[in-house]
Amino acid sequence: MLSPVSWNEDSVHIIEQTRLPDEEVWVDLKTVEQVARAIRILDVRGAPAIGITAAFGLALAARRYEGNDPAELVKEVQQAAKTLAATRPTAVNLFWALSRMQKKLENVAGATIDSLSKRLIDEAQKIRSEDIAYCRAIGKHGGALLPNQGYVLTHCNAGALATGGYGTALGVIRGAVESGKQIHVFADETRPLLQGARLTTWELARDGIEVTLICDNMAGHLMKMGKIDACVVGSDRIAANGDVANKIGTYSVAVLAHRHDIPFYVAAPTSTIDLQLSSGDQIPIEEREASEVTSPRGTRFAPEGINVFNPAFDVTPNELVAAIITEQGVATHPELGAKLEKMVRQAKAELEN
Ligand code: MRU
Hints:
Layout: E1 5-7, E2 12-15, E3 26-29, H1 32-40, H2 47-64, H3 70-85, H4 92-103, H5 113-143, E4 149-154, H6 169-178, E5 182-188, H7 195-206, E6 211-214, H8 219-224, E7 230-233, E8 237-239, E9 244-247, H9 250-259, E10 264-267, E11 273-274, H10 291-294, E12 313-316, E13 323-326, E14 329-331, H11 336-352
Parallel strand pairs: 4-5, 4-7, 5-6, 7-10, 8-11, 10-13
Antiparallel strand pairs: 1-2, 2-3, 8-9, 9-12, 13-14
Helix pairs in contact: 1-2, 2-3, 2-4, 2-5, 3-4, 4-5, 5-6
The chain binds 5-S-methyl-1-O-phosphono-5-thio-D-ribulose (MRU).
């Protein structure tokens, strides 16, 4: 199974996603700064994968500490957490993972430096393997919602590349296909950074799942032609009321799906649910460089110096969401928010046991 990030002999092993699909290049990140840069430039991207990579980043900070004072090691790790937290603001999995990792250093009295860094490596490994298991569970729950035979639209890449492995939205598709369903995927190209065109098509084709690439502005036409049976996307942050932040363009897909009576599903682990935020209006939306819009992959086709607005995410209001699929099951209206809260509570209880 493709996994975009793992721990490899005291470094963080990743596939450089900015090079896909032209080249498959794996690198070992050896410093916190390299990890932060990889997240910032989207060599590692997708909410769960960002969280896992940041967790390994903190393990790296502890591993590289050369002194002999546990309190000083904790400070180094806290500093690393600040650096990593400043990389991207929208995916809550980043902050969730950093906070879970730092909890492992709450009690350091009498511990050796080696045992502390081992604590962090073990916890980061755990976050990664849990995520893979959660994606498989999402695949089972969500796969059951798809028709036995049909066409599914997805936006951006919420696949193996965006998680520990297997994927959330693409996990749902994999789950359906593995249960014998005949699913054909339509992948939105996902401007400006083309995660759909570059990554979703690449990873589905690699698995032999039928996929057709379309430009973002073709989705409405396909829906009107009766070509789409369901939409499935991932998420970067889900507010307590079920509003969903995901890659820019997701909201347009949800509105179109609603117009055409097509179910719009969101697949995400409970680590993506942010119960602190009562609605999607409070989700911070990352804005990125103008050059991503004017000059995709280095080729400029807009006038130099033109004004650009480049929000990386948008928020889909919960009323457009047919169901939110997590590792805990499927949450639907009414009382979507209460069901999400219950799922988060269940996930916490499972971790504590
Ligand atoms: O900017 P990106 O590529 O990190 O955005 C990724 C997405 O929007 C994904 O849909 C989301 O993180 C869910 S990944 C399972």
